[in-house]
Write the structure tokens for this entry.
Amino acid sequence: MAVFSYNAVDQEGNQRKGTIDAVNMDVAVTALQRRGLVVAGIDEAQKPSALFERLNLFQGVSNRDVVMLSRQITTLFEAQVSALRTFRLLASEARTPLLSEKLTEIGNDIQSGSTISAALSKHPSMFSAFYVNLVRAGEESGKLDETFSFLADYLDRNYEITQKARNALIYPAFVTATFVVVMVMMMTLVIPRLSAILTEVGQEVPIYTKVVIGISTFMTNYFLLFALAVVIGAVLLLRYSGTEGGRLALSQTRLRIPQVGLIYQQLFLSRLTDNLSTMLRSGIQMVRGLEVSSFVVGDAVYERILTEATNDVKGGLPASEAFRKHPEIPGIVVAMIKIGEETGNLSKILDTLARFYRREVSNSIDTLVGLIEPFMIVGLAVGVAFLLAAVLIPIYNISAGF
């Protein structure tokens, strides 16, 4: 299979440039003609270097790219630009080669008669099941411009709240990592020299000093073995987290951590209610909305809850009663969903819940950051003070004895 670069003119008289995969040039020309293009020139494209291919492999399409893409599609659809021309234009103006390649493939699929949702579904790393299902609903209702606007707003909200949760952990993680590195250097480089002085003098040292010297001796003699054990443990944990039982166990553990578990619960409830609200407003039925939400909620516990709720709703149970079975869903959420079902305003009620939990996540994160900083300062100060006291007090006693 070779790649050919071509210049062509479509049936509307517009110039087209791009690439096509084919066994040989004749097959490439035939394929282009079947698309309604008049080929003006075609040549075999120069194969990219192995280094470029590796870089392109790891480049990926970011969430921000998909948000901007959705907004651009909305604008072009509102301007009555056809789907094919929309994706061709966006491919030519794409920020990265990988994004351009994917948009070109989508455009080719649309030109071959595929629906937009079907074309998007071929790129799951870029467009989630939630995204594809909303686009399919927009195609069925004839409101694609509104659908892409909904998606852009949803992705923006989800990105903002997720990034805030991640950014809140960066500072504590950095400080903790720095403290660990300093402690390891102290234990392996500084303490052994000081302990040698104490050993030579032969004076009795306090129990806490013996503990510090023992830890230092262990890390000095068995550091590589210890590091290897940590790496093996991390690899095993990573592999375990990839299994169904591992994902569920880690998710349950995460949700039980004080304060942190509350933030995760609020984050997933915000995502769950926002997903359902957006899909219901787009005309997707509750059963399908629950099913799709289970794919994209991002947590094994809530994924299991949504899967079980989907089966219950299929069996004729209202969504509020299906959620009532699970203690991870707060009573207020169940009560609000029940009100929405009775009044026929479920999508609006879910949107209210989503906005409420977004505010709660933001407030909880601010509270957690406010609590972490003083605790970390006190904890680091106590750790450093203990280490210094364990070493300096015996040295002071020795000097005082002279």
User: Anything to note?
Assistant: The mean pLDDT is 81. Strands lie at 2-9, 15-22, 38-44. The radius of gyration is 30 Å. DSSP finds 16 helices and three strands in the chain.
